[in-house]
UniProtKB/TrEMBL annotation:
InterPro entries noted in UniProt: Formylmethanofuran_DH_bsu
UniProt name for this protein: Formyltransferase/hydrolase complex Fhc subunit B
GO annotation terms (biological process): methanogenesis
GO MF annotations in UniProt: formylmethanofuran dehydrogenase activity
Amino acid sequence: MKNVIEDVACASCCCVCDEIQVTTDGQQITEVQTPCLQGQAWFDRSSQSEHLEPSVKGVAVSHLEAIQRAAELIQQAQSPLIYGMYQSATDSQRAAISLADQIGATIDTGAASATRALQQVGEASCTLGEVRSRADLIIYWGADAFRGTECHRNSLNRRAADLPRKIVTISGEETDFGDNVDQSISLEPGNELELIWSLRALLKDIDLEENQSAGLSTSDLQSLVSLIRQSQYIVIFFGPEFKRGPFAHRNIEALSLLVREIQAERRCHTLNVPGVGETRGAETVLAWQTGYAASVNFAAGYPRYSPREYSANQLLEQTETDLCILVGAQPLSGLSELALERLSETPLILTGPVAFEQFKTEVFLPTGVSGIHFPGVVYRLDGTPIPLRGYLPTGLPSEADVLSEIRALLKRT
Ligand code: SF4
């Protein structure tokens, strides 16, 4: 029977668009009105996941056999690692943390650099609704792909018509989305800290020499400073380009200092635009469950945090883990090349709505999709929790069910 469902949320990316119309025949999605192809692909996953089967070493087995093998592997492991949780709902993230706690594992997410910085200096943030209604200057720093998304542009265009707004982009690459950008700054990658320091100096009326301005002309910098001084409500979206490299957390810390200084006279907020695979929400759940937002180790029987020692990349690169439990749809994102190389030699348990071919998994436990088959909650990039609905039946369990079943079996043995 045809069923039209309004205001469905898409959990494929950090925008979590929640005004999508989905038509189903009661068993499958027959039509989706999404603003983008990535969203379409996420809704298509509902039919693809139905064909997935639990397996051990690539051989199809029953769900119970796969759970039992996963429990055996965990019991044999000395130093297990749980990683991923991108696109996972908060109940899956909570279940992953409980499992890590029970088995003394390390758990990490793909949002380590932002989390590290924000733990040091805090975050002055706002919601997308406030950006739409109040921001009179928006700066996109390394977040051009996000600026170009249709859902973000539509959201901004719903603002009050009489709110004047200036747009500035700072990027290493020139992109033209056909919108009116008031200032476009081309910045060589790696010069982010210098630019932030130059802006802080100019905002304090300290003169700069040409060679002190991050390779930019001082007139470019002065015009950005005057835009900042003319504005009352500034929002800086910083994206994947801004967070590249091993010292990304330093860039974010420096940006927070700049924002703090601008706030002395006007409102200024930052919004972190996650890259592909960078979780938004898992760090929140980790923080409320353990007190730490990433890279948490339970080997001592209580949570310990060390952003380097317990980061997934470090553990894999140094071959310090003997079992990796990957959770979610894109569990490899955020791993370095060396970590991926080491991962190919590490026994893997994968649970999620997508199988992957690159690595041989010891155990694969397929799941349905939160937001299509199961209700749940995911976090939008501005930190707003968005409820997800489950509106299609499935024979598959959820990620949270799988992780809880493994926990229950381990408790009994
Ligand atoms: S922009 Fe993101 S949340 Fe919105 S429909 Fe596309 S993939 Fe889904």
